Every structure is written in structure tokens, then in C-alpha cells.
């Protein structure tokens, strides 16, 4: 945005900035419309400071009356593309989660895509510059070299208490001032008024950049997180000691004792107060003001008075000491923070489930039917599918209960023979394969599985049914592998842990179950959208890690091989508490990323045509935000409690029954093969 006075001085500015936006918007992945938002996400509030400086520098020399020449517009667009590329890369390097109040690109899309998108933006700028000419390309190449050198020097100097003011000013000149200088220089070059005028405007941009960075460093100490759109006082915490801190170190000996890696929040605040109280901030403001005055002196003799005053007004507007930081964009409350259990008829559904458990034989007594793992399934279904009527909730609860039984069978402590694990998986696989044809015959598990599936298949399309059965078979193979790993004492590497944990957790089965509550099947273009896949990947990692924390004691007791805390301790040799702290941090960070993706995704998934896929995508996001609290509450179901009825668990009984069925099936198969062989003879 530009001020009214600047717009009056340069009447074509807003329309020329629209031309810049159009060129910038062309930097995307060809023929992949779903990836277009990746390179078009707002960088901050997109005030387009650098393109505006390029255009104003051009107007000052070429005249403010007419629209800018296409070369000037392209130069301005190239500068913006370079700036965006640098932000993408900086946020990945810093692991920054927000950019001017919005989730950063790496938070929403992931670090890999953010880096590659930054590369794409940089090469798009390079292509434009090569078309402008060899001189422009060389100027940009030299500027990029200085910027990278400055970033390297700043990174190398992190937490360095001996960092000098000269070091700070040199780095600031390279990493920030050079890009603003480049903007003015490229704009001036397109006016063709000679190297002296170009140099004056380039120096104006450099001093402006110095003032801009010093002011930004001051705001990090004086503004709030809401005003900045990112964590306040982050420079001290990250070990980037800026001009106010360097000056304060010279007069506050106690400050040096506070500054270190791993600074606590309380110590960081004490350090900030020391800097604020010693007068260093006011001195830094004077340094910034001196650079502004030096920048404005470079305008003497350039263009006409109206143009000079217009550019001077713009410089003051973006460096004014009274200006406030751009207001942060307020996102909806994080989904994970919204409490409440959806109302439903879960008591009525639970009564039906209890009767069904006895009817199928999963439970043999009313007391056994009230096993905590089963007795919470109706409430779990209500959380998982808020708004479902009793019939829908019972359908979902039956299916989830069958999945829970199968999951528990492989974790049952009595399962101590690897051969039994293989035979158990084989029998369950036969049951799953029979669901696609005729209902499988057998005992309690076979009966319950067939009856639960029959209700599901009536409401789900054939393509979903085929995919869901395939996922069930894959899950059984992963569950068999985990159970064998548990018996052998195997603990995977950190590199392999998530893939193994994801497989044995039945994540695809969980997503298939979600589609039941969605009311059908997600369109492939929605299910396969890179942002949806990232949401699922980040969400699964956070949820599984959270589950590992909640079941750690029990997992340690039974030797669960894939628990992340156990894997961390095994690979790194850290203490139990250190591993718990690290996994806790990962959980918090993971769900924060989920919230950020859900907040940013509507603008990304909503295409201009507003087609059916867009409606599906928006519906998926809405359901995800609504149901995340309920999904996280699934951990409340106690999988480790056993039935109080009798000395044996229901799992041991069901396991023996399934293995007997397997033996009978194998014997029948042997008899059939013998008979077939005899007939052939």
C-alpha cells in the first residue's frame, strides 16, 4: 500500500504495481494449478516495498506523469521475486513458523517445497534479468553474492559476545541494505539518465535499507508479538546480537552473563529489560534517523521537486519512528484448542453395542462387555462423527470396535510365539478377503467383522470398499511385523521409526474410517493434493508421538518396539526425561503446524472456478478443524485394562479361537489338496 501523497505524486504507481503483481504471479509450476499458491503466498502483507522503490526511482528520472516502461515494470518484478525467494530460504534456515502474522511457507508446505519454491522464484527473476540485459544480470549477481556473504557472517556470529558494532553494520549493509539498493538501482537503470544518477539512487536505497533494518531490530525489542506477527525478542533468543544489544553490552556487565544458547523465557525478558533501560535503543534510533537523512540528501538535484518530494515521503513512511508494525492477521482459534465433546446419543448406542458384543460372542458376559476399551466406543464414535444419528453412530462404532479388537490381538501379552503371530495374521487376512465376496464363516471375530462390514458397505461406494480392504491387509502385515519385533527385542532407528509406526498404527485404515463419516469418498484430486497429504503426514506424526507419550509406561513394560521415546533413548543414549521432553516438543510443534496448515489451507484449496473439488476440499478442512479435538481424545480409551471377568482376558480367548479356525482351515485345505491329487491319479 502507498500513501495518498505518494499516489498523487506518481499517479501511475498503483496500476504499475498491478502489472508487477501479474508478472510475479507467472512464476509457478507449469500445468500444476494445485501448486500455484506455493509461489504466490503473501510475503508479509505484500506492501511491495522493493518494487515500489524500483518504480519510484524510475519515475524520478523518467518523469512521474506516464506509466512505467515495461522494462521498469519487469525490473521491479524481478526484485520482488528475489525478495520472496530470500524470505522462503530464510524461514527454512531459521525454522520460522510465521511471517508477518501468517503461517510461513515452510510451515504450511514443508521445508523441501519451500526451498524448491524459493529456487523457482530466484530462477524466474534471473530469467527476467537476462532479458533486460547483461548489465542488470551482473548487478544482481554481485548483489546476491554480497547478501549471501552477509547471511553467512551473521550465522557464524550467532551467540558471539565479542561481536562489534562494525561487524553488525557490515552484515546489515550486506543482508538488507543491498537489496533495497538494488531495487532503486535497477529502476534507475531503466530510465537511461546515466551512471551518476543511478549511483545516487542506489546509495539512497542502501541508506534506506540500513535504517529499515536498524528500526526492525529495535521493534524486535520494543514491539509485541501481535504487532510483529512473529515472536518478539527473538533476536536475543536466537543469538543474533543487534545494534542495541551490542551497545548495551558495553555498559551492562550483567547482560553478558545472561546471553547464551538455550536462554529461558525469563532470562530473555531480563536481558531485554537491561537493553531497554540503558539508553541503547534510543541511540540505535538516532543511527537509523541519520541513515534516513543521508538517504534523502541523495535526492538533491534529481528529477523535479514533485518527484523528489514524493520519493522522500515514501522513504519517511517506511522508516518513520512513529510508524507501527503492520497489524497481524488474526487466525481462527486453533482447532486443537477448542474444547467440548459433541452431543450425541452415545448412551443409547452403547446399549446396542453391548447387546451386539454378546450376540456375536466377542463378549461372553455382561461384565466382559463393559470392558473399558469397548464401553467407550459409542462415545468415541460420537466424538469422531459429531452430528451422526443413532444408526450412523452404531455403524461407525461397530466398525471401530472390530478394528480395535484386531489391533489389540497383536499387542496381547499372551502372544509370545512368532509362529502364532504369523498364523493369526494369516487367519485375519482370510477373513478380510472374504468380506469382498461372501461373509466369512467362523467364530466371534469373523461374525463381528462380517456384520460390521455389511453395515458399512451399504453406505460406501465400491471403489472405497476395494481400497479399504487393501488397506486392512497392509495393516495386518505391519501389525505382524511389529509383534515379531516386540518378541525379538528389536528397536528401529530414528530414520525408520515413523514409517514403521505409521504402518502398524493403521493410519490408512483410520482415514478410510474418516471417509465413512464424511459421507462417501474423497475425490482423488482432493485426497492427493500436496497440502492435504502434508496435513495428514504432519498430523499423523504429532498424534502418534502424543500417543507414545501417553502410553509410555505400558509400552516400556511390554517392550513395544516403535515408541518414539524408547527409540530416542536407544539411538541417542539420552535419559528418559530428556527423551520425553524432546517428544513433547515435537508433539506441540506438530499440532501447531497442523493448526497453521488448517488456517492457511482455505485460501490455497479454493480455486477460482469453485468447482466440486473445491467444495469437497473446503468441506474436508471444515470437518478437520471441527473434529480434531475429538480425534485427539481417542487416547482416552484405555487399551491396557483387561476384563475383570475370570482369570483370562477376552483377547486370549479370541486369539485361541482364531488360531483353532486357522488350524481347521489349513486341515481342510490339506484334505482338499489330497483329494484333488487322488482324483488326478
UniProtKB/TrEMBL annotation:
Swiss-Prot/TrEMBL cofactor(s): Mg(2+)
CDD domains found in the cross-reference section: Trans_IPPS_HT (cd00685)
Keywords from the named record: Magnesium, Metal-binding, Transferase
Signal peptide per UniProt: none
Stored InterPro entries: Isoprenoid_synthase_dom_sf (IPR008949), Polyprenyl_synt (IPR000092), Polyprenyl_synt_CS (IPR033749)
Coiled coil location: none
Family (UniProt): Belongs to the FPP/GGPP synthase family.
Name used for this protein in its record: Polyprenyl synthetase family protein
Species of provenance: Microbispora hainanensis
